[in-house]
Specification:
single chain, alpha+beta, D-amino Acid Aminotransferase, Chain A, domain 1, D-amino Acid Aminotransferase, Chain A, domain 2, 2 domains, 9-stranded mixed beta sheet, 21% helix, Aminotrans_IV, Aminodeoxychorismate lyase, folate biosynthesis, lyase, pyridoxal phosphate
Length: 273
């Protein structure tokens, strides 16, 4: 099931289509109730301020999740600067476009319990503090990184920036436990500051750090997470060439971070031993 406000094609001169000049959010909606809605709206507002795009009216946005009806859905929101301007010069004032879509969703629940295999990516993320943390429409780096593998046994790829610091996975944030402490990469140069990440950092003592991939050799446990899938424990890490680099066991895995994540999203919080 897919529904959208727009029954007509997107204008060819829309700046989101032409330049990636816009932002998007993907929101988990359960029986018409959006999960992590305050975090999604806060990130969208930050992005609009950073790009100088007027934020859509709250009344317009707040009414969209309720159109989902029963069951689990994903609401995708896209805000572009609209049309106009001359080349890269944006129009002033801008007349932004809001596009939205509702689609059925089912999380990959087997990965909550069994864990996942991931690999390093060759692609390095560019550093641009002005865009760091935002979920903007220009995601070509992530597209290229995700195209590096087609093995269905590999769930995700880890990305470093051009200075060699860990940032994220292609569509998930990265967490690990080192010396009993929960850590996550600092995202002040690149990457997407996920809404689940933000909510977890409000609940748990998670420290932002700048570290290269070698830090994972010291980690007692590693997780990937986002606001749709919840949190996956990592059980195997491969090099970009597919060679096994590190494994982790699920025995004795610290599950509190996973329980917190799943409570935030309305998923089962009790699993594993």
């Amino acid at each position: 099931m897919t529904r959208s406000l727009s029954d007509t094609p997107i204008a060819a001169d829309d700046r989101g289509l032409a330049y990636g000049d816009g932002l998007f959010e993907t929101v988990l909606v359960r029986d018409g109730e959006p999960q992590l809605w305050p975090q999604h709206m806060a990130r969208l507002a930050r992005g609009c301020r950073a790009l100088g795009i007027p934020m859509p009216a709250a009344a317009e946005l707040d009414g969209l999740p309720g159109q989902a009806g029963a069951g689990l859905m994903v609401l995708k929101l896209i805000v572009t600067r609209g049309s106009g301007g001359r080349g890269y010069l944006p129009p002033s004032p801008a007349e932004p476009r809001l596009l939205w879509q509702l689609s059925r969703f089912a999380p990959q629940v087997e990965r909550w319990e069994a864990g996942v295999r991931v690999r390093h990516c060759r692609l390095q993320l560019g550093i641009q503090p002005a865009l760091a943390g935002l979920k903007h429409l220009n995601r070509l780096e992530n597209v290229l990184a995700r195209s590096e593998w087609d093995d269905p046994e590999v769930a995700e790829g880890l990305l470093c920036d051009s200075q060699g610091s860990l940032v994220e996975a292609t569509c998930m944030n990265l967490f690990w436990q080192r010396r009993g402490r929960l850590e996550t990469p600092r995202l002040d140069g690149s990457g997407v500051a996920g809404t689940l990440r933000a909510a977890l950092m409000e609940r748990l003592p998670i420290t932002e750090v700048v570290a290269g991939p070698e830090v994972l050799a010291e980690a007692e446990a590693v997780w990937l997470g986002n606001s749709l899938q919840g949190l996956w424990p990592v059980i195997r890490l491969d090099t970009a060439d597919g060679a096994m680099q590190r494994c982790w066991t699920l025995a004795g895995l610290r599950r509190d971070i996973q329980r917190e994540a799943h409570e935030l999203l309305g998923y089962p919080a009790e699993f594993g031993h």
